[in-house]
Amino acid sequence: MILGRRSLIAGSAALLAGCDTVIQQPAARRILFLGEDMHRGLQRALVNRNALAPEFTGAERSPFFRPNGTRDPGTSEYAALQAGKFADWRLQVGGLVAQPLSLSLSDLGAFPQRVQITRHDCVEGWSAIAKWQGPKLGDVLKAAGMRDAARYIVFTCADLYGGAPYYESIDLVDAFHPQTILAWALNDRFLPVMNGAPCRLRVERQLGYKHAKYLMRVEAVASLDGIGKGKGGYWEDNVDYDWYAGI
User: Of 64, 125, 214, 225, which cross-links 157 as Cys (Cβ 3.0–4.6 Å)?
Assistant: First the structure.
């Protein structure tokens, strides 16, 4: 019997203490990503990456949406933003764009909004269904006037790993996917801190570690070579997670 990606993830969950725990043992990494190269190649070749992820009804939402990764950035800068109910928070949109943007929560709310009820699949082996709201990332990038040289979108966050901001990246296929949004609301309320307040990425065709929380900066770049160690994300650079985590 050939194991599917989700079966491999669930079976590997016992190896993990959480998404924010670095796996040091090479054997654990090999088990976690057994068959990743084959899966990635087949998926990119055979699956329409523009297809929509499944959406659900309100009645199908999970009673509780548990946090993945960091529960609270715990820095003085983030604490100050939280104390002010994120009134002073700004999302910086820059890099290879014609018009850099500095967006407040009100600014994000002024864009056309997408509301979607989707399932979050975490590398820990759990899933949950929740309702998300926010503007499409593609609409924000269009407002900034992305330059032709841009190939990837990099997200820099308020939570720190090893003293440096957490980071992730996606390509333009996922950046302009209609279900890729900058979510500021979860189940009709502002995001709780544990779920990434005030704004997080939702990239619904990929696993949970790609859904960067506590967003501070969105940057269009031509290459991932200068991002971290060059693999495109913190977990990719440090724990050999796969950069393309499509499901």
Answer: 214
| pLDDT tens, position by position, 168-196 | 999 999 999 999 999 999 999 999 999 99
Determine, yes or no, domain membership for 73.
Answer: yes
pTM of the predicted structure, to 2 decimals? 0.83
Q: Within a domain: residue 245?
A: no
State the total domains in the chain.
1
Residue 246 lies in a domain: no
- Domain span at residue 183 reads 5-239
pLDDT digits (tens, 9 = 90+) for 19-77: 444 334 445 444 544 444 444 444 455 567 889 999 999 999 999 999 999 999 999 99
Residue 14 burial (CB count, 10 A):
10
Instruction: Quote the tokens at residue 169.
Output: 């990246």
Q: Tell me the C-alpha distance between 184 and 153, whole Å.
A: 19
